[in-house]
């Protein structure tokens, strides 16, 4: 294994070295072997005592210290100048089979200089939620951090109740966040902002080195990746839950799965996070919040964009203006695919909008609606769609117009069906399934975790496992709690 220390070698203000502390009784409960192989890590070694110390406490074979990364962040709109990895560590970087650098990062591994009042630990429940949801996102084709392993620590952590402790081993293209830039900018440390920007360009956006203004090109590129990412979330009904600037990756990957959730019934105002009382990060607000966060990133880059402040602001604004265009393109193209439309017509956005209105009025299940539209293209039967909608939705009128639109397509129903089922998942990680899985895992029964993970690895396949079923009234999850 070639384990680098690229980020750890940046100037000392970027991170704090850590001494790995042993866990009481670490046990691997999940090891993602295909991902391990992709990263050039030997699964047998990972299961050995040395591998366990690597996964559980960040002990590097070369004995070099892992680090906690420094960052700041706007949390629910309020700026906190120093957050940092309070219960996480960057162990190092490996080069994967595609010759890309990937971070190996642990969460729940113990206190760091950034822990503030926290205990530096993670509870097993949120660890498994992150494992399941991040791997599900990957299987859905959405940029995301990955889960290499989940461990139990043999220790208890105090939350609302005592809970088993856990560690998640997370893989990312980078753990630099908008908040990392804010950390230095808030201290007026432009030199460090520049070092960070150069590091990010070199690692994640090497093609920008040649740009006329690489820092402007960076803002532009991050804006585009983030707009594309959030559009993809919207198309599968994903709610991140805590889109604080410290939880927004510069690499454009979904990161920090805390109180995240997928929509069951469609509702644009839906919020699951218990701590988000004002609905700041509601499903329908996510594009606006992403752009708001990018505005905070832009502010940190102003001194690098132009020595003239007004000119720098104009340039930053023009980069941020790209957000809507990229978002709308991914979103509308995604909608066409979801509805089985290969041709482009002007009325398509309106057709999609009318379906959302019908789903909202009829409280229809987001995922099942699309899956059954796909079924209907082949069978010609629409009762199973209509039955998802409550009264007053006007879904029948919508279906009639959609079918008229499909009649203008130039391909076979079979081809259209195949395309739709490859874009509209049958299975998403539904909250009630996750809660059920966690309830079992904390008693030591990991069978539901394994079944759910396996099913979510092929979300587009037909099947009879029952995982597509929405929650019954008594199974509905109203709130999810933060991942702490
Ligand atoms: P999060 O809500 O997980 O995005 O975390 C926000 C900030 O709180 C980060 O700086 C975390 O490192 C820190 N934090 C969260 N939980 C803990 C914990 N149990 N102990 C120490 N720091 C924590
Ligand atoms: Mg976070």
- Average of the residue pLDDT scores: 96
Q: Return the string of H and E elements.
A: EEHHHEEEEEEHEEHHHEEHHHHHHHHHH
Ions, cofactors and other ligands present here are: adenosine monophosphate, magnesium ion
Q: How many DSSP H or I helices?
A: 17
Give start-end ranges of low-pLDDT stretches.
none
Give a quick account of the main beta sheet: strands, pairing sense, barrel closure: 6 strands, antiparallel
Number of strands: 12
Multimerization status: single chain
Outline: globular
Fraction in helix: 40-55%
Distance between the termini: 31 Å
Helix and strand arrangement:
Elements: E1 15-17, E2 27-31, H1 33-38, H2 43-47, H3 49-57, E3 67-69, E4 73-75, E5 78-80, E6 88-95, E7 101-107, E8 122-123, H4 124-139, E9 146-158, E10 162-172, H5 178-185, H6 190-204, H7 214-236, E11 238-239, E12 261-262, H8 286-305, H9 309-320, H10 322-338, H11 348-362, H12 366-379, H13 383-386, H14 395-407, H15 413-421, H16 431-441, H17 447-456
Antiparallel strand pairs: 1-3, 2-9, 4-5, 6-7, 7-10, 8-10, 9-10, 11-12
Helix pairs in contact: 4-16, 4-17, 5-6, 5-8, 7-8, 7-9, 7-10, 8-9, 11-14, 12-15, 16-17
Bound molecules: adenosine monophosphate and magnesium ion.
Residues 83-88, 114-115, 118-121, 242, 246-247, 256, 258, 482-484 line the site of adenosine monophosphate.
């Amino acid at each position: 294994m070639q384990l680098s220390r690229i980020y750890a070698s940046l100037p000392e203000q970027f991170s704090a070295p850590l001494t790995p502390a042993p866990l009481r009784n670490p046990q691997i409960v999940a090891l993602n072997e295909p991902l391990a192989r992709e990263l050039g890590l030997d699964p047998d070694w990972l299961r050995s005592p040395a591998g366990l110390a690597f996964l559980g406490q960040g002990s590097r074979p070369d004995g070099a210290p892992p680090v906690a990364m420094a960052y700041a962040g706007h949390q629910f709109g309020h700026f906190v100048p120093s957050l940092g990895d309070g219960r996480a560590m960057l162990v190092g970087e490996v080069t994967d089979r595609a010759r890309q650098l990937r971070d190996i990062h642990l969460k729940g591994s113990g206190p760091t200089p950034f822990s503030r009042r926290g205990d530096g630990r993670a509870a097993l429940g949120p660890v498994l939620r992150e494992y399941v949801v991040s791997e599900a996102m990957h299987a859905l084709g959405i940029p995301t951090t990955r889960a290499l392993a989940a461990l139990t620590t043999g220790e208890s952590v105090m939350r609302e109740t005592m809970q088993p402790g856990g560690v998640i081993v997370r893989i990312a293209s980078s753990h630099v966040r908008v908040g990392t830039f804010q950390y230095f900018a808030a201290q007026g440390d432009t030199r460090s902002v520049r070092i960070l920007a150069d590091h990010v360009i070199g690692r994640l956006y090497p093609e920008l080195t040649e740009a006329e203004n690489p820092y402007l090109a960076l803002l532009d590129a991050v804006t585009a990746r983030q707009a594309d990412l959030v559009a993809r979330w919207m198309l599968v009904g994903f709610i991140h839950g805590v889109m604080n600037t410290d939880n927004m990756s510069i690499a454009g990957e979904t990161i920090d799965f805390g109180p995240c959730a997928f929509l069951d019934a469609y509702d644009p105002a839906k919020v699951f996070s218990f701590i988000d009382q004002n609905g700041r990060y509601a499903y329908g607000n996510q594009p606006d919040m992403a752009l708001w966060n990018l505005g905070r990133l832009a502010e940190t880059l102003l001194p690098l964009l132009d020595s003239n402040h007004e000119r720098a602001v104009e340039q930053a604004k023009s980069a941020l203006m790209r957000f809507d265009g990229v978002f709308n393109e991914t979103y509308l193209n995604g909608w066409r695919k979801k509805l089985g439309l290969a041709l482009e017509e002007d009325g398509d956005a309106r057709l999609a909008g009318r379906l959302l209105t019908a789903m909202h009025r009829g409280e229809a299940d987001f995922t099942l609606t699309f899956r059954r539209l796909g079924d209907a293209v082949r069978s010609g039967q629409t009762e199973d769609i209509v039955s998802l909608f409550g009264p007053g939705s006007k879904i029948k009128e919508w279906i009639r117009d959609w079918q008229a639109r499909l009649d203008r397509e130039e391909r076979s129903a079979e081809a259209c069906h195949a395309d739709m089922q490859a874009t509209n998942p049958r299975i998403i990680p539904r909250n009630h399934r996750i809660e059920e899985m966690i309830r079992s895992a904390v008693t030591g029964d990991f069978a539901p975790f394994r079944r759910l993970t396996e099913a979510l690895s092929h979300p587009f396949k037909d099947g009879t496992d029952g995982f597509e079923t929405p929650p019954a009234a008594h199974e509905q999850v109203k709130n999810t709690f933060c991942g702490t």
